[in-house]
Amino acid sequence: MSQTILIIDDDDIFAQTLKRSFTRRGYEAWTANNISEAESLFAKKPLYAVIDLKIDDESGLHALNLLMQRSPETKALILTGYSSISTAVNAIKLGAQNYLCKPANTDEIIKALTDSTSSQEAVSIEENPISVDRLEWEHIQRVLNEHEGNVSATARALNMHRRTLQRKLQKRPVNR
């Protein structure tokens, strides 16, 4: 039986790059840029699936749910740039083998899909985990970047007063 993989991602360039990378490693790879395209490929019962969490205006969790209904033996992985504990828990509950944050390379994806112990291993915690203040600063910077430096739009997205955000931005970043 050949190793088959379905890649569902609305970023066509990323999907095609990932497809080429899997093909070079001996996989037969298919891509879909939305859930309706992917549904026609579910009938092929891929061995593996890599599903982006946000597919245009749709949820990758919905795609995962549809895939698990039609092909429960497929080992699926949710790949996202918008990670959160709640979506990770939902993905695992819906049948995902694993959950990875972007950027992830092909080798990391293969390991997450094929290593049966990876989802059962204890998560190692750093001896000096990142501080809450540093986490807040990084989150603010990410949201600011998403809003192209617009402080007012960022403040609205963070549900924060604009002046409060400006004061936080004037401070130097906290070291770990």
Describe this structure in words.
This protein has 176 residues and is an alpha/beta fold. It folds into two domains: 4-114, Response regulator (Rossmann fold); 132-170, Arc Repressor Mutant, subunit A, CATH 1.10.10. Helix content is 47%, strand content 18%. The protein has eight helices and seven strands, in the order βαβαβββαβαβαααα. The strands form two sheets. Strands 2-1-3-6-7 form a five-stranded parallel β-sheet, sandwiched between helices. α2 runs parallel beside α3, α6 packs across α7 (151-157) and α7 (151-157) crosses α8 (162-170). The longest helix is centred in the C-terminal third of the chain and has 15 residues, at 132-146. The protein is elongated and about 55 Å long. Residues 118-125 have low confidence and may be disordered.
